[in-house]
Write a structure and sequence with these properties.
By secondary structure, this protein is α/β, with parallel strands linked by helices. The chain has two domains: 6-126 and 249-321, FAD/NAD(P)-binding domain; 129-245, FAD/NAD(P)-binding domain. The chain is 23% helix and 28% strand. Helix 1 packs parallel to helix 6. The protein binds NADP nicotinamide-adenine-dinucleotide phosphate (NAP).
Length: 322
């Protein structure tokens, strides 16, 4: 027995786009989020790369997306943390349509359950935090976790990048499109990033590596002004206009009680239409393995998954009537 046609877990751009489309296609759709609607939009100051909208505050776009989806009948359960996601009934594998559906059960911390044949996982994830003084205080005022989103705000400035993996080195290289200089600070003397990325970065005259450095503080007044770190036992300070932190990203894929295929980083693996390895479960946005984490791609993922979920639910209803 299902209460809904579709349950969506996560209320960022991917989940809200899925919710808008699913509700507008007359599917009985509920979206659940542990906090306020908006996801990472709520941690983004200014957005200027969403097509058709020259500039908008992240919080404003979140409100607009939520209102828009609700207008078409999306039911929203915000501030409702999810405890676990389970599948009841046969595990039929990834090929569909099938005549027998299993039921996806979303158990909330409150003890309630949301049940539907289709589930769209849009719970995103969080950047790994450095956890140093100033990081939280200057988030959106010089501290960033996304070079594509925020790099253009730092034209002509000197920047610090923290991390030694592929993301830090590649994004550091990308940031030199805007910055006059990029310092890459890494805690060890060896970089984890692939040699090809390191070679490219070393050949870039705007990049300087500061290895064996432990970041201690991000300092400033209204905005970031400096990064403080320790190197070889000495305390040092670099004046910078921004600090980009790339020390990993943790996708929120751990809610499933059943096995769902994921990569070594925990990102859920999907097919062309966002279908996961479990029939009737789609994954969209930052929680899935993909090239980039952008609002526009998240919205595209959500749209695709909603259409696929609609076809799936319709095929189940047709089969039940036959
Ligand atoms: P990652 O490979 O896990 O690297 C994280 C880096 O952050 C490591 O150098 C690590 O240092 C450092 N770090 C972790 N915690 C830290 C802390 N508390 N303080 C200071 N430094 C810390 O993460 P990623 O670079 O985000 O990449 C994630 C995945 O995406 C990887 O599989 C990567 O290959 C892939 N990726 C690929 C590309 C590409 O192919 N072009 C681009 C981006 C990402 P240690 O080295 O000392 O552990």
């Amino acid at each position: 027995m299902s209460d809904y046609d579709v349950v969506i877990v996560g209320g960022g751009p991917a989940g809200l786009a899925a919710g808008l489309y699913a509700a507008r296609m007359n599917l009985k759709t509920v979206l659940v989020d542990r906090g306020a609607l908006g996801g990472q939009l709520l941690n983004t100051e200014l957005i200027e790369d969403y097509p058709g909208i020259e500039t908008i505050l992240g919080s404003e776009l979140a409100t607009k997306m939520g209102d828009h989806a609700r207008k078409f009948g999306l039911l929203v359960r915000d501030f409702e943390p999810v405890k676990e996601i389970d599948v009841e009934g046969d595990q039929l594998g990834p090929s569909w349509p099938r005549s027998r559906a299993n039921t996806k059960v979303v158990r909330l911390e409150s003890g309630q359950e949301l049940r539907a044949p289709a589930l769209i996982m849009a719970a995103g994830g969080l950047p790994r935090y450095l956890d140093v003084p100033g990081e939280k205080a200057f988030w959106g005022r010089g501290v960033s976790y996304c070079a594509v989103c925020d790099g253009a705000f730092f034209k002509g400035q000197e920047l610090a990048v923290v991390g030694g993996g592929d993301a830090a080195v590649e994004e550091g290289d990308f940031l030199t499109r805007y910055a006059s200089k990029v310092y890459i600070l890494h805690r060890r003397h060896e970089l984890r990033a692939q040699p090809i990325l390191v070679d490219r970065a070393r050949a870039n005259p705007k990049i300087e590596f500061i290895l064996g450095s432990a970041v201690k503080e991000i300092a400033g007044d209204e905005k970031v002004k400096a990064i403080r770190y320790e190197q070889g036992g000495s305390a040092r300070e670099l004046p910078v206009g921004g600090v980009f932190i790339f020390i990993g990203f943790v996708p929120n894929s751990g809610l499933f009680k059943v096995h769902i295929d994921h990569d070594e980083g925990g990102y859920i693996i999907t097919g062309r239409d966002m279908q996961t390895s479990v029939e009737g479960i789609w994954a969209v946005g930052d929680v899935r393995a993909q090239l980039t984490k952008q609002i526009a791609t998240a919205v595209g993922d959500g749209t695709t998954a909603a259409v696929a979920a609609s076809l799936y639910v319709t095929s189940l209803k047709d089969a039940a009537r036959a």
